[in-house]
User: Fold these one by one.
Assistant:
Number 1:
Amino acid sequence: MLANFVQATYIVAGVLFIFALAGLAKFETSKRGNAFGILGMVLAVGATITAVWAPESWRGADWADQMPSFVGKGGVVPLVLLIVAMLIGAVIGLFKATRVEMTGMPQLIAQLHSFVGLAAVLIGLNVFIETRQELLAGHQIESVGFHLAEIWIGVFIGAVTFTGSIVAWGKLAEKISSKPLTLPGRNWINLITGVGIIASGVWFQNSHSWFPLIVLTLLSLFLGFHLVAAIGGADMPVVISMLNSYSGFAAAFSGFALGMNVLIITGALVGASGAILSYIMCKAMNRSFISVILGGFGTTAAATSEGPAGEIQEVKADELASWLADARSVMITPGYGMAVAQAQYPVAELTKRLTEAGVQVRFAIHPVAGRLPGHMNVLLAEARVPYDIVYEMDEVNDEFDETDVVLVIGANDTVNPTAMEPGTPISGMPVLHVWESKKVVVFKRSMKPGYAGVENPLFFLDNTYMLFGDAKASVDSINSALPAAEARPAIGA
């Protein structure tokens, strides 16, 4: 009876996870989606604690057949260990979640992916310990070959996710260089490593020994490192999504190894949705999905520009304020630099004041403006920017030629016309055509190239002006200098 209750709770939790994913598909239903996910996890954890804590008298004859192996023994010690592990995880999670800023969310996601990958590796090794003990004791295990395959595939995906996520975190946090690591013969290295992993897996499946599993683990750890290290910083948003998919599949195989339906369902949902998102992002950025998966397979290191390509024009905040007051239409293209400077709040104030003065203000959002899809939209929503004036790149990219002033705040690679030329790390990536407007004002701290390390010729165009300094302070200065203009008739009136 109790076994049926636990399994039914797992199924309900899995259904709630499906509802959560559906809710997260839209901005309007995202809170509800999160609520479903939280409830599903509470039920799954509660069912697991119940299964571990349940005394022998509560267990039926079918207990051993229906429950995962780790809850079969039960007792006080397993329960205490489970609760201690949960408390440690909860403390770490709360510490990271309460301290992280919105700008640090991509890095945090990469860190969490590494935890999932490491957990999958440890689960696989632990399950093999129990399996090997059963085999050495002479016990017959049904479908032992398939069971061992579940173990080594889970370890393989988990190890790749672990080291790959650490490298992604390092690149996003600027702890390591964002430039791709291009070892001589790197594609052959990946191929040989992949063959070695498969061979070790088959060897492990037939020998039931530790040595091939250890070799497989080490090779997988190296492969995860090398695959992500070979991808440039400009493609890290896609990599994060890809690693999200990997972590899901690692969790799914861990579920197979443990016999936990809820973990299989959750992992499959995360893995499939992450793969779909990665494909969509690759298509939006004109990247090959297969190339990204294989660590930039077939690409070569492109040389970046060696320095400035001309003279720049500077503008001061008070002069820019007069331009904005006289403009009929203004387009704001925010980037990661705006988020770092926490400039979204004075930008929202600027938007409000210009709108009240009759200026048409719109936001043009590149898919990876905040490093992850939807990230910039969340930042603007936090600052109370009206959602109906925030547009995706494809919606407004043809309207820059009708715009009086474009404010590029903390963006670089996403407005770089070099992307339309061959031979650079961002070649082929769709960008915002801000240079087609009458005037472009770029907010930057310095002339340092963007995250991809590519010089931006936009800065040297005749219609481009540079406003150097902290983005938040610069926008505050503009707000202070903005004249209290009377409202003008709306465009088209």
Note: DSSP finds 17 helices and six strands in the chain.
Number 2:
Amino acid sequence: MNQIHNIPDVKLGLIAVSRDCFVISLSERRRAEVAAAYAKKGGEIYECKVTVENELDMLKAVEDVKAAGCNALVVFLGNFGPETPETLIAKNFDGPVMYAAAAEEHGDDLINGRGDAYCGVLNCSYNLGLRKIKAYMPEYPVGTAEDVADMIADFVPVARTLIGVSNLKIITFGPRPQDFFACNAPIKPLYDLGVEIQENSELDLLVAYKAHANDPRIQEVVEDMAAELGVGNQYPDLLPRMAQFEITLLDWAEENKGARKYVAFADKCWPAFPSQFGFEPCYVNSRLVSKGIPVACEVDIYGALSEYIGMCASGDAVTLLDINNSVPRDMYDAEIKGKYDYTLKDTFMGFHCGNTPLCKLSQGAVKYQLIQNRLLENGNEPDITRGTLEGDIAPGEITFYRIHGSAEGNLQAYIAQGEVLPVATRSFGGIGVFAIPEMGRFYRHVLISKHYPHHGAVAFSHIGKTLYSVFQYLGVPDIAFNQPKGMLYKDENPFA
């Protein structure tokens, strides 16, 4: 399956700053050591040779890194640093900026070899705040060259995500399904983030789909689908319809992204879709995610944004699931209790009809959507309700998260790390048994108390650190997480 270039490549630049009353060579030497340490770790970074002492230096340095093609920047305080010029770097550079500072190196070299960058970071942060300039600060932004190289490595997925979001267009088809107000999407917060929206009707999509009938590329996609599914290709006659739809979406993305570099979709997948297109779109949606283009179910625009953020942050495929059902006690007692360090309330089942990529399932097959079959085909032999990709989600680390526009039009987000357990679900859809520490309290005092919808995005690794930094940089005022036992939520009853 061909990957589509739908997340940014990060090209880093490194600028050192120096207070004019300090030894400039100290900052320049330390800058070179940072660049060398990052290269030793396998990273690539452009080392700007203009050391910034004043505003004119700042302009030269910014032009230099721009000319080198840098889209993310590390500003390094090799000594105390000049407050105004160093913060104006971030103001004048069009992209995410990280600040870090040099630790002192030798106890017997604290006269000419003392840089005072530990102090300088404080004035730097004050001036960033004074000018309301956004910047990324590591958790502890002072260190040796090797330490700073590690900070830069942590910054890369943050930068990649921020660049992606600022160049993203979310393309929608149709309104949310009837009585699915939880998928409501206030537009203003998306514009505040720099995200563009293109809203289309289901009819627009149907017209485009019909225009792709007999497209010469269909057979090639059919063959690719068959090869991917293997024994999971239970409905070979369905593949041409789904291949036609995949080509339709890919062409739409290319023809409509306009001034934007990256796209995500949010589609109305029921109830009219199966009857008009002749299948469920889930398997195609899963394939696009595998290729690098998230497709959110049920016109969940913030779900699509969440998926895209997770894809940039992890560099891997993601999915969108319902926080769906509790784990039955007998199932917990037989297969989880005593084997894994989780209570019953720590567990739940994440599910959706069939949008999770095949590469994230233990074993998957194209099947039919049971619930829609009851609704649209009266439980008879499935035809138009075929097209879901179903199977148990593969066990392993996960991050469950969402960025959301509340009913009041405010941005909020949550992040919870956990895992998918190797427990057979014995159910239908793309589904897994999830375990998140203190999930019961998180469910009550974040998901319910803060009025989150039923959809959450899932990344298949622990990326909470990156996501938290991204949400902070984006200015999300409310970032929740699954608080450990003994750490009470604001509305949690201490006597419960």
Note: Residues 12-159 form a domain with the Rossmann fold fold (CATH 3.40.50.10940).
Number 3:
Amino acid sequence: MPSWITVFIIILLYLGLSLTVGLCSGRSTSRGTEGYVAGDRQLGFVSLYFIMGASIFSAFAFLGGPGWAYSRGAASFYIIGYTSLGLVPLYFFGPKVAELGRQFKYVTQAQLFAHRYKNPYISVTLAIISLIAFLPYLTLQMQGAGYVFSVVTEGRLPQWAGAAITYGVVLFYVCRRGVMGIAWTNMFQGILMMALAWGLGLYLPYVLHGGIEAMFKELAAVSPAMVQAPGLDATGARWSWGGYSSALAISMFGFSVWPHYFMKIYTAENIGTLRKTVIFYPTFAFFLLPILIIGFSGVLAFPDVVPADTILPTIVTSLGLPAVVVGLFCAGALAASMSSGDAIVHAAASILVKDFYRVLFRPAISDRQETTLIKYLVVAIGAVAYYFAINSEISLVYLLLLSYGVIAQIAPALLATLYWRRSTPTAVLAGLIVGSCVTLLWNLLPSLQWQDIHPGIWGLLANGLVLLVVSLNTTAMEKNHIDIFITPNKAEAL
């Protein structure tokens, strides 16, 4: 039997196991939106750690990370930086948000903002911004899954088919079990990814170069620009420190306000669990390190691999490894894609129903109808992202940074919501719109770039300025209402 068939069978077995885990979980949760979206607010430390950690260990990490190390060298270490620090803010604002969520039954991010500012249009705007950010991020995950299938079957199974098979499984267990299905599959997928990442990260440099130290010495001698900070840009020229630092900054700003991360605050069983998860979360950055080492190992051994995002499966399938081993490694890459994609599509559908459809069209929709509609939208959003995945040739890294630039625009609104009494609904709404538009405009018009500064930074500056000026020139909200959100409460009551 050809080796690619064996690999393909192992991948199918992995997908079947993921589906089984997803369908067997969450049977005891309630059937309404609080159960489907927030897991009845009963997730413990282990579940919360893996559902949040595996969400960042995405197709970008498993495929785009090695691809960036392979093509841009030291620039790839920005991934370690923002992953380690991105959730630090959540340690401080997370308990307050969780407390408010329990008190007022929030299950989405926008419900907090809409309640604070008594403005439904903020909810609608946040839903639109979230969807704009989610679609390229979900597209990224599907592209990654398609790459894996295409490479391991030596092109016999096209990228579009691989993405369809993988996300057919994802959409099925997300529709059936909601956030609990995501939690348990992410735990399974996270453990698999950790084991495979370190296995590959230690083995490949040894086989190709005689070890990690020897690999970097060889790179320094042959291609020194690859190992010198801050690395290379997309053209192969030396990346500016402005570009590097702004990409790191925008990713850190955006990290803790991603709606699918933010919504997991509401699922924690108590404040202690939430804080413990945030403290241990940087350990996932530790598991990303060998992923980058894999990319470095291929620079000299496998030149001219195109696209760069396929370097990991290219190396694995070129070394003559047993088909079973190759299949397991490819399953790990699919696990990376699925563990982020499931959380994204679930959050996107929940947000569109709770923060857009319900607010604008059917405020009186029943809980059961709401849950059913979310499930329909899981499929619809998945279909839209799939269309872009099979018709786009944009790199995984570019898609990631575009998503972060847009979603980071929520950060000023969050800070104002929880820490600034003088902020007003008009100001928050204006800041969100202006910041998002500036970010998208700077992405569309490269001529506006200066010193390679990430477009999202310009968006944040415009966002914050508008928020400040408009707040000071519009009527302040009543003190009693603001006290609910600003005045510290006893988080231990949770």
Note: Residues 490-494 have pLDDT under 50 and may be disordered.
